Amino acid sequence: MSNGKTVVADAVQSAFSLSAEMLEQVSIAAEMATDASFDFSKACDSVASLFGALKNEGVLTFTSWNLVADKFKAVATVRARDNGVIDPEGAAGDCWERVVKRNRDIHGLTKPTSDQKGALAMTKKREEDKAKALASAGGRSSQELKADALALYGQATEESIAKADALKKVVKVVEAAEKEAVSTQMKPLIEAANAQHKAVMEYLKGCNDPKRLGDYVVLLKSTIDAWKSLSK
Question: Can you tell me the distance from the alpha carbon of 163 to that of 145, in angstroms, rounded to the nearest whole number?
Fold first, then answer.
């Protein structure tokens, strides 16, 4: 019986052939795939040629590489969007990574490292600007600085408006410093709270007492409700 099924299946399989529509569909797909592969190779070689020219001129740097990458991805994003891609930016980024990998494997092109001296100089300048802004704040909070800025704007003179504009920049620095200070204080407290909550839960699991666990749930909820009412 099994041999009969095999014979029939083999006969059906040997008799099967692609329709004209199927053959055309496969042919078009093969041509598209081949063209796409060829076009992609040409695109990679074009980018490699550009990088090669920049390298020969001594200007292939971390910055110039990023400028090329940004332009490539910007155009690729538009094209992907036109083609109906769900995530155009993601598709553009993936396409660029494929180009980079292909050029690295074939041409040995790799992204230059960042200019450490320039980066350190920028970091130093930002820290100096931050220190100056905090010094000009004179210990005032961001809310106090905002009030002072509003008062200066209220005077409506060129000098007062200029001072208020300068003060707004200081406000941003102070707000960032305040947020950083709060985050620094919150981190160990959050860790301690999580540790205590974990210890309580382990204790309650060991007790295996639904009533105690229920009391803990009620305690937590009442605490949250009380805090919310205080903040109103």
Answer: 11
Residues 69, 88: Cα–Cα separation, whole Å: 15
Q: 3-class SS at 2?
A: helix
What angle, 0 to 180 degrees and rounded to 10, lies between the N-to-C axes of helices 142-155 and 158-207?
A: 160
pLDDT at position 11 is: 45
Q: Which residues of the chain have pLDDT under 50?
A: 1-2, 7-9, 11-12
Tokens of 211: 């009533």
- CA-atom Rg of the chain in angstroms: 33
Q: What is the pLDDT of residue 67?
A: 93
Six token digits for residue 196: 């205590």
DSSP single-letter state for residue 62: H
* Closest residue by Cα to residue 76 from 88, 87, 86, 67: 88
Closest-CA residue to 164 (of 181, 173, 152, 182): 152
Where b means 16+ CB within 10 Å and e means fewer, 189-203 reads eeeeeeeeeeeeeee
The pLDDT value given to residue 33: 87
HEC string of 16-53?
CCCCHHHHHHHHHHHHHHHHHHHHHHHHHHHHHHHHHH
Predicted local confidence at residue 16, as pLDDT: 78
